[in-house]
Design goal:
The complex is a heterodimer of chains A (171) and B (63).
Chain A lengths: L6 H10 L1 H13 L3 H13 L9 H35 L8 H19 L2 H11 L5 H8 L3 H24 L1
Helix pairs in contact in A: 2-3, 2-4, 3-4, 5-6, 5-8, 6-8, 7-8
Chain B lengths: L4 H15 L7 H10 L1 H21 L5
Helix pairs in contact in B: 1-3, 2-3
The chains are: A mainly alpha (171), B mainly alpha (63).
Protein backbone atom coordinates (compact mmCIF):
# COMPACT_ATOMS: atom_id res chain seq x y z
CA UNK A 1 0.00 0.00 0.00
CA UNK A 2 1.38 3.34 -1.00
CA UNK A 3 -0.95 6.35 -1.28
CA UNK A 4 -3.02 7.68 1.58
CA UNK A 5 -6.09 8.77 -0.30
CA UNK A 6 -8.82 10.14 1.92
CA UNK A 7 -12.52 9.76 1.21
CA UNK A 8 -12.54 13.29 -0.16
CA UNK A 9 -9.71 12.76 -2.58
CA UNK A 10 -11.26 9.44 -3.62
CA UNK A 11 -14.48 11.28 -4.42
CA UNK A 12 -12.45 13.73 -6.48
CA UNK A 13 -10.99 10.86 -8.48
CA UNK A 14 -14.47 9.37 -8.76
CA UNK A 15 -15.79 12.65 -10.16
CA UNK A 16 -12.92 12.97 -12.67
CA UNK A 17 -13.33 9.39 -13.84
CA UNK A 18 -17.12 9.42 -13.74
CA UNK A 19 -17.57 8.52 -17.43
CA UNK A 20 -15.16 5.59 -17.33
CA UNK A 21 -16.78 4.14 -14.22
CA UNK A 22 -20.31 4.60 -15.51
CA UNK A 23 -19.32 2.98 -18.79
CA UNK A 24 -17.86 0.06 -16.82
CA UNK A 25 -20.98 -0.26 -14.63
CA UNK A 26 -23.23 -0.21 -17.71
CA UNK A 27 -21.16 -2.89 -19.46
CA UNK A 28 -21.00 -4.88 -16.23
CA UNK A 29 -24.76 -5.38 -16.36
CA UNK A 30 -26.13 -2.26 -14.67
CA UNK A 31 -27.35 -0.90 -18.02
CA UNK A 32 -29.66 2.07 -17.44
CA UNK A 33 -29.06 1.83 -13.70
CA UNK A 34 -25.37 2.60 -14.05
CA UNK A 35 -25.95 6.17 -12.86
CA UNK A 36 -27.77 4.94 -9.75
CA UNK A 37 -24.98 2.53 -8.96
CA UNK A 38 -22.44 5.26 -9.49
CA UNK A 39 -24.33 7.34 -6.93
CA UNK A 40 -24.28 4.42 -4.49
CA UNK A 41 -20.56 4.09 -5.06
CA UNK A 42 -20.16 7.80 -4.38
CA UNK A 43 -21.94 7.45 -1.05
CA UNK A 44 -19.97 4.36 -0.08
CA UNK A 45 -16.70 6.06 -0.85
CA UNK A 46 -17.76 9.17 1.06
CA UNK A 47 -18.47 7.07 4.16
CA UNK A 48 -14.97 5.61 4.20
CA UNK A 49 -12.81 6.64 7.09
CA UNK A 50 -9.40 7.87 6.02
CA UNK A 51 -7.06 5.06 5.27
CA UNK A 52 -4.55 4.15 2.59
CA UNK A 53 -6.16 2.38 -0.33
CA UNK A 54 -3.29 2.09 -2.80
CA UNK A 55 -3.95 3.20 -6.37
CA UNK A 56 -7.21 5.20 -6.10
CA UNK A 57 -8.64 4.53 -9.56
CA UNK A 58 -8.01 0.80 -9.32
CA UNK A 59 -9.60 0.83 -5.87
CA UNK A 60 -12.69 2.54 -7.28
CA UNK A 61 -13.09 0.08 -10.17
CA UNK A 62 -12.71 -2.76 -7.67
CA UNK A 63 -15.38 -1.18 -5.46
CA UNK A 64 -17.64 -0.85 -8.53
CA UNK A 65 -17.12 -4.52 -9.43
CA UNK A 66 -17.92 -5.57 -5.85
CA UNK A 67 -21.00 -3.37 -5.79
CA UNK A 68 -22.35 -5.07 -8.92
CA UNK A 69 -21.74 -8.49 -7.34
CA UNK A 70 -23.49 -7.42 -4.11
CA UNK A 71 -26.50 -6.12 -6.03
CA UNK A 72 -26.75 -9.36 -8.03
CA UNK A 73 -26.41 -11.50 -4.90
CA UNK A 74 -29.12 -9.50 -3.14
CA UNK A 75 -31.42 -9.83 -6.16
CA UNK A 76 -30.78 -13.58 -6.35
CA UNK A 77 -31.53 -14.08 -2.66
CA UNK A 78 -34.71 -12.00 -2.93
CA UNK A 79 -35.71 -14.30 -5.78
CA UNK A 80 -34.98 -17.35 -3.65
CA UNK A 81 -36.99 -16.01 -0.70
CA UNK A 82 -39.85 -15.35 -3.04
CA UNK A 83 -39.57 -18.91 -4.29
CA UNK A 84 -39.55 -20.19 -0.69
CA UNK A 85 -42.82 -18.39 -0.02
CA UNK A 86 -44.25 -20.03 -3.09
CA UNK A 87 -43.10 -23.44 -1.97
CA UNK A 88 -44.55 -22.80 1.45
CA UNK A 89 -47.90 -21.81 -0.01
CA UNK A 90 -47.95 -24.75 -2.39
CA UNK A 91 -46.85 -27.33 0.12
CA UNK A 92 -47.60 -26.40 3.71
CA UNK A 93 -45.73 -29.50 4.80
CA UNK A 94 -42.83 -27.43 5.99
CA UNK A 95 -39.21 -27.97 5.15
CA UNK A 96 -37.16 -29.17 8.06
CA UNK A 97 -35.23 -26.31 9.57
CA UNK A 98 -31.98 -28.25 9.33
CA UNK A 99 -32.34 -28.70 5.58
CA UNK A 100 -30.37 -25.58 4.75
CA UNK A 101 -27.48 -26.70 6.93
CA UNK A 102 -27.60 -30.11 5.29
CA UNK A 103 -27.43 -28.55 1.82
CA UNK A 104 -24.51 -26.40 2.93
CA UNK A 105 -22.65 -29.49 4.15
CA UNK A 106 -23.39 -31.31 0.89
CA UNK A 107 -22.08 -28.36 -1.10
CA UNK A 108 -18.95 -28.11 1.01
CA UNK A 109 -18.24 -31.81 0.57
CA UNK A 110 -18.87 -31.61 -3.20
CA UNK A 111 -16.60 -28.59 -3.62
CA UNK A 112 -13.82 -30.16 -1.59
CA UNK A 113 -14.11 -33.40 -3.57
CA UNK A 114 -14.12 -31.53 -6.90
CA UNK A 115 -11.02 -29.53 -5.99
CA UNK A 116 -9.26 -32.59 -4.61
CA UNK A 117 -10.04 -34.35 -7.88
CA UNK A 118 -8.03 -31.71 -9.73
CA UNK A 119 -4.92 -32.57 -7.76
CA UNK A 120 -3.25 -31.08 -4.71
CA UNK A 121 -1.58 -28.21 -6.56
CA UNK A 122 -4.76 -26.92 -8.24
CA UNK A 123 -6.60 -27.31 -4.94
CA UNK A 124 -3.96 -25.41 -2.98
CA UNK A 125 -3.57 -22.68 -5.61
CA UNK A 126 -7.31 -22.05 -5.82
CA UNK A 127 -7.55 -21.70 -2.05
CA UNK A 128 -4.47 -19.49 -1.89
CA UNK A 129 -5.88 -17.25 -4.61
CA UNK A 130 -9.48 -17.05 -3.50
CA UNK A 131 -9.42 -17.62 0.26
CA UNK A 132 -6.10 -15.99 1.16
CA UNK A 133 -6.27 -13.31 -1.55
CA UNK A 134 -2.71 -13.91 -2.72
CA UNK A 135 -1.96 -12.67 -6.26
CA UNK A 136 -0.96 -14.95 -9.15
CA UNK A 137 2.60 -13.59 -9.29
CA UNK A 138 3.17 -14.34 -5.59
CA UNK A 139 1.67 -17.81 -5.95
CA UNK A 140 3.95 -18.50 -8.93
CA UNK A 141 6.93 -17.46 -6.80
CA UNK A 142 5.79 -19.59 -3.86
CA UNK A 143 5.50 -22.68 -6.02
CA UNK A 144 8.46 -21.89 -8.23
CA UNK A 145 6.28 -22.23 -11.34
CA UNK A 146 5.43 -19.90 -14.22
CA UNK A 147 2.60 -17.41 -14.16
CA UNK A 148 0.91 -19.29 -17.00
CA UNK A 149 0.98 -22.52 -14.98
CA UNK A 150 -0.83 -20.72 -12.16
CA UNK A 151 -3.38 -19.37 -14.63
CA UNK A 152 -3.87 -22.86 -16.12
CA UNK A 153 -4.47 -24.33 -12.67
CA UNK A 154 -6.97 -21.61 -11.86
CA UNK A 155 -8.71 -22.19 -15.21
CA UNK A 156 -9.19 -25.84 -14.25
CA UNK A 157 -10.58 -24.94 -10.83
CA UNK A 158 -12.89 -22.24 -12.18
CA UNK A 159 -14.21 -24.48 -14.96
CA UNK A 160 -14.91 -27.35 -12.57
CA UNK A 161 -16.59 -25.11 -10.00
CA UNK A 162 -18.80 -23.45 -12.62
CA UNK A 163 -19.96 -26.90 -13.75
CA UNK A 164 -20.50 -28.03 -10.16
CA UNK A 165 -22.55 -24.95 -9.32
CA UNK A 166 -24.66 -25.48 -12.44
CA UNK A 167 -25.42 -29.00 -11.21
CA UNK A 168 -26.50 -27.72 -7.79
CA UNK A 169 -28.58 -24.93 -9.34
CA UNK A 170 -30.35 -27.46 -11.54
CA UNK A 171 -31.45 -29.54 -8.54
CA UNK B 1 -13.21 -12.88 -31.03
CA UNK B 2 -14.35 -16.24 -29.67
CA UNK B 3 -16.92 -17.95 -31.82
CA UNK B 4 -17.30 -21.39 -30.25
CA UNK B 5 -19.02 -21.49 -26.81
CA UNK B 6 -16.04 -23.22 -25.21
CA UNK B 7 -13.75 -20.44 -26.46
CA UNK B 8 -16.14 -17.85 -25.09
CA UNK B 9 -16.25 -19.62 -21.73
CA UNK B 10 -12.49 -19.88 -21.61
CA UNK B 11 -12.11 -16.19 -22.41
CA UNK B 12 -14.71 -15.36 -19.75
CA UNK B 13 -12.87 -17.50 -17.19
CA UNK B 14 -9.66 -15.76 -18.13
CA UNK B 15 -11.24 -12.40 -17.24
CA UNK B 16 -12.92 -13.74 -14.11
CA UNK B 17 -9.58 -15.09 -12.91
CA UNK B 18 -7.63 -11.95 -13.78
CA UNK B 19 -10.15 -9.67 -12.04
CA UNK B 20 -9.74 -11.81 -8.91
CA UNK B 21 -6.09 -10.83 -8.68
CA UNK B 22 -5.47 -8.02 -6.17
CA UNK B 23 -3.04 -6.50 -8.69
CA UNK B 24 -5.59 -6.44 -11.56
CA UNK B 25 -5.56 -3.07 -13.27
CA UNK B 26 -7.03 -3.54 -16.74
CA UNK B 27 -10.57 -2.33 -16.14
CA UNK B 28 -10.95 -0.43 -19.40
CA UNK B 29 -10.00 -3.53 -21.37
CA UNK B 30 -12.57 -5.53 -19.39
CA UNK B 31 -15.18 -2.87 -20.18
CA UNK B 32 -14.40 -3.10 -23.90
CA UNK B 33 -14.53 -6.89 -23.85
CA UNK B 34 -17.92 -6.84 -22.10
CA UNK B 35 -19.23 -4.28 -24.58
CA UNK B 36 -18.03 -6.26 -27.60
CA UNK B 37 -20.80 -8.87 -27.40
CA UNK B 38 -23.84 -9.21 -25.13
CA UNK B 39 -22.95 -12.89 -24.62
CA UNK B 40 -19.73 -11.88 -22.88
CA UNK B 41 -21.44 -10.58 -19.73
CA UNK B 42 -23.41 -13.77 -19.13
CA UNK B 43 -20.32 -15.90 -19.65
CA UNK B 44 -18.29 -13.66 -17.34
CA UNK B 45 -20.92 -13.86 -14.61
CA UNK B 46 -21.13 -17.64 -14.93
CA UNK B 47 -17.35 -17.86 -14.56
CA UNK B 48 -17.40 -15.62 -11.49
CA UNK B 49 -20.38 -17.28 -9.84
CA UNK B 50 -18.88 -20.77 -9.57
CA UNK B 51 -15.69 -19.59 -7.92
CA UNK B 52 -17.42 -16.99 -5.70
CA UNK B 53 -19.89 -19.63 -4.56
CA UNK B 54 -17.12 -22.11 -3.78
CA UNK B 55 -15.08 -19.48 -1.95
CA UNK B 56 -18.12 -18.47 0.13
CA UNK B 57 -18.92 -22.09 1.02
CA UNK B 58 -15.30 -22.90 1.86
CA UNK B 59 -14.96 -19.78 3.97
CA UNK B 60 -18.44 -18.73 5.12
CA UNK B 61 -17.19 -15.95 7.36
CA UNK B 62 -15.53 -14.18 4.43
CA UNK B 63 -18.75 -12.64 3.15
Amino acid sequence: MTGGATATSLQQVLQCERNRLIRFLAARGAGDEAEDLFHELWQKVGALTDRPVGEPLSYLFRAAENLVRDVRRAAASRGRRHQDWHDLADAPAERPHGERALVAREQLAAIEAALAGLGPRVDAIFRRYRLDGVGQADIAAEWGISLSSVEKDLQKAYRTLTELKARFDAE
Amino acid sequence: MPTHPSELNEAARHWAIRVGDPAFDDWDALTKWLEADPAHLAAYEAAIDGADWAAAVLKPKAS
